């Protein structure tokens, strides 16, 4: 208690106000108890210093004490004050001022009343505190009840949270599934879009009412339209009604409703922007949730159809060509066969034999010409003809061609008019091939001009070009036929008598040879019965003079020359023997072999001066035989000549590589063969030449 009292006194002296300490623990007769104390400052007139009034209160309230005890306490308090005051007065001497004492007694009574009031207020506060404590306890019970309810709600929330977590896991799983499905659908959509957009064929997706809901890029590019004017538009009104096609209506309104898929449905239509088109449509009805779609692809087969028509025309021309070829080859053979039959009879007059021989010779040359045309077309088409380019006079070439065909012109009783310049017109070209061009054009005019007709050939220089024009008043050509006039195997219509005979090769060969000379050829006609005009343009050469022709060392030599020891090798016995007979007529010593083994043996025994060697032999080919002959000492100075039916440049080149000195194509020109044998001089290593 001392510590609490000292602290209270110190606080009153510092602050000058009353201080109350409660709950001070002290030991009493009945054991430990709690007391309260209050310290009040006391200052009165006539009293020096500061007085302190201290009240002690035990745990029992003063109101609970009996009235005698309360009176005794008051009395004790007043006695104590009087004693203290009496001592102070006695010490100072008697103070006559009793009024002051009375006043102090009054103040003390007022103070006592104030203290009682304070105690009552204190007690009231304690009652209120107790009531508040009871309310607090009640509230605590309510709080406990609420807490229990909250715990229950918490448990319910935890249970609900667990359910929500489970549901959330399921939702996440479903979300992953949906995302996977979405990715798959997106990928499938992108894949389908990529397929649709990369398709080379136009594609349309139509609603059941035939409105366009989708089109790919190929459709826009092919039909020259845009998505703005296509999507949502009725198909029949698209492009100002250009898709309002009866056959398309039949497909979409009649056929497709009865069939799920329609393939290769043909449609032909002339579109304003892209022209005539032949199309193949493929359509399908596709049922999707809630509605139906129509897929339609459009395949433009115009070029394919044209190619098919061209192939069919080419096949027809081929069949016509083969029929004509059979006719053209049989006619000369008939004349040759008849001539042989006439020669075989002893009772035939010499004049008749001469006529038969002349006819057979003409037909043989004609047959050779046909074969040569076939070979030339084949070589030109494959690009294996090599031109011997040199400055040549085109005027001279035209004159030579007219001379060659003069008899044929006379035979058809045609009037031939020439309009040629007096000065040479030089061009860089192959003289033989250019003569072939002029000859074929003139032959064409002769064949397709009726007897007594008129043919005109003119040549002039114009704007750096040589212009050759061949005009006739023959059967003419239709406008449809003109674009195909230079196509191989194509001929104008002719009658069964085949008076206008031919294979349809001449003009095709003319065009190819002219183009190889960097020129052009054009044909025109006013129509059937109006004649035809062919114009050839060739660039004029910059050369001032013709190249000097090489002097042939054998030009002045005898046709046959000195007799030679000759070996003929051919698996065709008739061809080998007939060649041998002709050579023997010129005084040559000729031996025959029909295969490679016997040829090598005969060559080793007879040491031939010349070997005429076929290429296609049964046991070994001519190239192998030639290679072995070149290694034999007995044939060191032998002239090796290939005599073959193979006319291609590749065969000539292979012959040179094998060691042949010359290459001749069957049937060989005997005068040319004699010239080669006469003019050639072979050293032990040989000299590579070619015919």
Automatic annotation (TrEMBL):
Coiled coil: 101-174
Location(s) in or outside the cell: Cell membrane
Molecular function terms, GO-annotated: ATP binding; phosphorelay sensor kinase activity
Pfam families reported for this sequence: HATPase_c (PF02518), HisKA (PF00512), PAS (PF00989), Response_reg (PF00072)
GO CC, any one term: plasma membrane
EC number, UniProt record: 2.7.13.3
Enzyme class: transferase
Name this protein carries in UniProt: histidine kinase
Record field: catalytic activity: ATP + protein L-histidine = ADP + protein N-phospho-L-histidine
Location of the Histidine kinase domain: 324-542
PANTHER family: HYBRID SIGNAL TRANSDUCTION HISTIDINE KINASE C (PTHR43547:SF2), TWO-COMPONENT HISTIDINE KINASE (PTHR43547)
Alphabetical UniProt keywords: ATP-binding, Cell membrane, Coiled coil, Kinase, Membrane, Nucleotide-binding, Phosphoprotein, Transferase, Two-component regulatory system
Residue numbers carrying 4-aspartylphosphate: 614
Domain of life: Bacteria
Biological processes annotated in GO: regulation of DNA-templated transcription
Domain Response regulatory residue range list: 565-681
